[in-house]
Amino acid sequence: SVWLFRLVSKRDRGYLLHNSFKLVIVISLIIAIFILFLTTYMVQKNEKVNDTGAYLLFRNVGQGDSVLICDLGVCIVLDGGPANESLGLLPQNLCNIYGVLLTHPHKDHLAGLTRLLRLCMPEVVFYNQIEYSSRGYEEFIDLSSRTNVRTLHRGDSFGFGSFTFHVLWPPHGFETPTNINDTSIVILLDRGTFEVLFTGDISAFVQRELSLEAYGGIIQGDIDVYKVPHHGSSASFDGEFLLSLQPKLAIVSLGENSFGHPSPLFEEHFKSYGVRYMRTDEYGDIRINLKETL
Asked: 80, 108 in Cβ contact below 8 A?
């Protein structure tokens, strides 16, 4: 038996050594992959834990709109911008989203959310299904049907983290107008003494229909941040409405375009009244960190 063992070992020694070497390589690769996975997981986990404060992030998505509203390491994505700009929507590409909110189904607000829903499935999708035909909108509706869907109309409200979302527009039964922009969901975001007005792409007509007086008990002083509607289009300028707001900061989201956005009317008004005015095409992403105390 000893002679047989020596014979087999001598004959197959090279074979056994070769396979042993391959086995060591495979085991080493498995260990390396495991260590890389563990390290990545810990880094991402720490990034989520370390960025748990409340903040708003107005993304520079080109000619479109997209805002992250985040608290406790989780976000609501309000509009998604053009699809080509959607990959960087979330910090470190983590699917740490509670919900997405589509103001209206034009591509420069919709496409990024559709792209996002292919990768991540939030707990809820907020949007109002209106009569509008596009392949992107049809896909958005289909993807949204896989999770909870909630419509939003004037008078509705919901909480998220330390934020409260108050819906100012559209009213129930609002018929789809020729101007799809006027179906935009308008949100008054409240966090203690901090308020933001998100306006989608509404025109001056809708602004004259909004009644901020009804929210006098919520708005503490003037509006802190005003998201300028429709990338600063002249069709969305209403001087009286802006006078009633007197925001401390106005933000317009836009990129290179052939529409003449933003209209000089907005900048002239804000300069006249000492309102700070920021453009995403000039400043890039605009982040507003909020204090822990409300």
From this structure: no
Which of 107, 153, 108 lies closest to 126 in space, CA to CA? Answer: 153
Structure tokens at 3: 């002679």
- Give phi and psi for 184, each to the nearest 5: -55, 135
Three-state DSSP class for residue 40: helix
Tokens of 283: 């400043």
Q: Are 55 and 189 in contact (CB under 8 A)?
A: no
Cis peptide, bond prior to residue 91, ω within 30 of zero? no
For residues 81 and 111, the answer to whether their CB atoms sit within 8 Å is yes
Residue 267, SS3 per DSSP: helix
E-assigned strand segments in 136-175:
148-150, 157-160, 163-169
Q: Return the SS3 of 124.
A: strand
Are 256 and 63 contacting, i.e. CB atoms less than 8 angstroms apart? yes
Strand partners for 67: 58, 78
Q: pTM for this one?
A: 0.79
Q: Per-residue pLDDT tens for 189-202?
A: 999 999 999 999 99
